[in-house]
Specification:
The chain has 355 residues and is of the alpha/beta class. It has 13 helices and ten strands. It binds pyridoxal-5'-phosphate. Pyridoxal-5'-phosphate (PLP) binds next to helix 3. The site of pyridoxal-5'-phosphate (PLP) has 11 residues, from helix 3.
Length: 355
């Protein structure tokens, strides 16, 4: 039995047909273990085709592991990693980046929108240069950010320029990387290695897979021994083909992009529909598959009373996330309910003012 669709998280979605069918094909018969199989080879090659470069590709179970191990591979324990205050690595990974790097400290930049800018990096990276401070070594950015903003190619180029100047590596948390590509309409290479990104964590889970993220090293030297790091961290899948085959399904069919385009379009649909609603405002520009709304408590309570689930852990606003499977009719039902409760709240306010 399934409940009516909710948009509280893009992780509520199931597995998309392309990923599912590839897993089904991988399930016919046996194959070599630990990544020494055709599916894993084919998925790695599909990434190299998509990114137009001979990158090193690894598969992890989730984004926390992918980010943490990637960052750990870029620095020593006495180094530090610059990130935004809203970064998932800072707020939602339970200290895993510090744990897997044996203590590399996260240096948190206060940012308005969750986007890092060159000045913030320069300030943190050059503020202290003495032996007592953990030496800045890596910058990590989230593309799109946790609140759904997308870095342009020029913005990533500007960040990587300051990284190069200051001797810093650039990591990209791309848990929703496909959604950023859908928005930018650019080649994946242009927003990553051609713009100076050293390592990308490409999210599969929020792109339609059951589970799995890919870690792409654009400088093969940085990938040295990363397979051992994965194994030690419990991230080497013995039946690797079930982690890699869904990528073959997503990448070879183009579903990786169409899934993201669909999620983004649903977010745009909601954002456009609330533009004229009194008291209901967008907290952030809608540039990917997330919509954050501020609204009076009466409106949010009214939505909950009508059965809608959503998170309000960022600034008290309501977050709605749209995955590959978002049903436009359900988006319209949400819009209709939002209009109804916001209209009631507006009428109440009017009645109060008139009284
Ligand atoms: C979802 C997400 C991740 C990965 O989270 P896991 O639960 O560990 O898979 C990483 N970064 C961002 C920005 C995310 O939204």
């Amino acid at each position: 039995m399934t409940d009516a669709q909710q948009f509280a998280s893009d992780n509520y979605a199931g597995i998309c047909p392309e990923a599912w069918q590839a897993m089904d094909r991988a399930n016919r018969g046996s194959a070599s273990a630990y990544g020494d199989d055709d599916w894993t080879q084919r998925a790695s090659d599909a990434f190299r085709d998509l990114f137009e470069t001979e990158c090193e590709v690894f598969f992890a179970f989730n984004g926390t592991a992918a980010n943490s191990l990637a960052l750990a591979s870029l620095c020593q324990s006495y180094h530090s990693v610059i990130c935004s205050a809203q970064a998932h690595v800072e707020t939602d990974e339970c200290g895993a980046p510090e744990f897997f790097s044996n203590g590399s400290k996260l240096l948190v930049a206060p940012t308005e929108s969750g986007k890092l800018d060159p000045q913030a990096i320069r300030k943190l990276a050059t503020g202290r240069a003495d032996i007592h401070f953990p030496k800045p070594r890596v910058v990590t950015i989230t593309q799109p950010t946790e609140t759904g903003q997308v870095y342009t190619v020029a913005e990533v180029q500007a960040l990587s320029a300051v990284c190069r100047e200051l001797g810093l590596r650039l990591h990209m948390d791309g848990a929703r990387f496909a959604h950023a590509c859908a928005t930018l309409g650019c080649r994946p290479a242009d927003i990553t290695w051609r713009a100076g990104v050293d390592v990308l964590c490409f999210g599969g889970t929020k792109n339609g897979m059951a589970v799995g993220e890919a870690v792409l090293f654009f400088d093969p030297a940085l990938a040295q021994d990363f397979d051992y790091r994965c194994k030690q961290a419990g991230q080497l899948a013995s039946k690797m083909r079930f982690l890699s085959a869904p990528w073959v399904g997503l990448l070879e069919s183009g579903a990786w992009l169409s899934n993201a385009e669909h999620g983004n379009a649903c977010a745009d649909r909601l954002a456009a529909a609330v533009a004229d609603l009194p008291g209901v405002d967008l907290m952030f520009p809608v540039e990917a598959n997330a919509v954050f709304l501020t609204a009076p408590d009466t409106v949010l309570d009214g939505l909950r009373a009508r059965g809608w689930r959503f998170y309000t852990f960022i600034g008290g606003g309501a977050r709605f996330m749209f995955a590959w499977d978002a049903d436009p009719a359900r988006v319209d039902a949400l819009i209709a309910d939002l209009r109804a409760v916001a209209g009631d709240a507006g009428a109440d306010a009017f009645a109060c003012a008139a009284a």
